Amino acid sequence: MEKHPNDASLKRPSSPAVRGRFETAVWAADFARDAGGRGAAREYEAFIPDPIAKLDVAVEGATAALSERAGAAVRELSASEPKLISLEGLARQLLRSEALASSRIEGLSLSHRKLAQAELEGHGEHTALEVLGNIRAMEKGVAVGTSPDLITTADIADIHLKLAIVPPLDKIAGQIRQEQSWIGGADPPNADYVGPPPAYLPALLADLCEFMNRDDVSAVSQAAIAHAQFELIHPFGDGNGRVGRCLIHVLFKRRGVSPHYVPPVSLILGANKDAYIAGLNDFQAGRLDDWIGQFARATEAAASKASAFSDRVSGLQETWRERLGGVRSDAASLAILDLLPSFPFITTRVVRELAGRSDVAALRGLAQLESSGVLTRHRSKRKGDSWEAKELFRVLAEFEEEVRTPS
């Protein structure tokens, strides 16, 4: 059962819900913790969202145009060739930013530096491992969206399975809940939001997948509706917000909107968490135009910010090349520069495996970049030496701070 205090909290609409109905149920705690006896039975209302498989997505012309414009912005991002940063390097950094932002919405804050270090070493603090799980979930979502097969409930469960790699979430990895869930408060009668009882979940998830397999809806509108519907269903004991945001990228991939890059939509949504939650409540109350419009604006902004970030990292790489001076085109140091956007923490092993250089050549190239001020060396007898691109972490921090700071 879910009572996660950091979840993006849905609220009961102040006006009667249009996109669903409430069902009265009774909550009887097994034991009253303080009194030592059975808790008094109390009524609560669980929300059952309306099915969306056959939903007529009828929105105003301005909303439809905004949705199409946002989709075009994401397509343009994927179509543009990065100047110096490799396509793989940009894709990897944008996916990291999206995973970090999605985790931050749930109260899991971590720096790019700590995340990159945990990726390199294969271990880290609990929060770092949770965010690594979110990256795995995003990667799984991208794979699901790339597959020609229809999206199924099993695919959604597999995304959760990839996410849930640390305690206590690992105990329910990939499992559709069998208990009542709620957000906020000590129990359902006092909760901010109570999702549908378990008996409704199979049909609701099958209906969601049927909607996600449609191709007669604008991709951005489809992603907005699928994400919000998933949050209303809340099918897992925990981790629903992060899985729901993965579904955005499942659809962007499936519909061919983002063949190369994951636009950091969560970075924009998370910059104003209250507005994001209000948008989800707009959907719950049947205000499709309000929610789709908000989501489309966030998507368009994410594409624009990602493009600017690409230019900034390319500029940094140009500066690094200038510092190196005249080196041979096949120099290991240049090959390492190409790897740094993907691996801002780097070792001789990474250079050997990904650039195909010997340990001697890798060490020589890393030393050259260190003497040029591009890398900082961290010596460790136990773990082995590693090198850090500190300037890249500063660019990443500045990029995310600009997104989070209102203009």
Short description:
The chain is 54% helix and 7% strand. With 407 residues, it is mainly alpha-helical.
Strand order, main sheet: write it out.
5-7-6
Biggest pleated-sheet summary: 3 strands, antiparallel
How many structural domains can be distinguished in the coordinates?
A: 2
Let me know the average pLDDT: 89
Give the CATH level 1 class of the largest domain: Mainly Alpha
Main attributes of the structure:
54% helix; two-stranded antiparallel ribbon; 3-stranded antiparallel β-sheet; Arc Repressor Mutant, subunit A; 15 helices; disordered N terminus; 407 residues; single chain; Fic-like fold; 2 domains; mainly alpha
Can you offer a commentary on this structure?
- The chain has 407 residues and is mainly alpha-helical.
- It folds into two domains: 20-307, Fic-like fold (Orthogonal Bundle); 325-404, Arc Repressor Mutant, subunit A.
- It is built from 15 helices and seven strands.
- The chain has helices at 61-79, 87-105, 112-121, 126-146, 153-163, 201-212, 219-233, 240-254, 265-269, 273-284, 288-324, 332-339, 348-355, 359-371, 390-404; strands at residues 20-27, 42-49, 182-183, 193-194, 345-346, 376-378, 386-388.
- Strands 5-7-6 form a three-stranded antiparallel sheet.
- The two termini are 40 Å apart.
- Mean pLDDT is 89; it is low at 1-6 and 31-37.
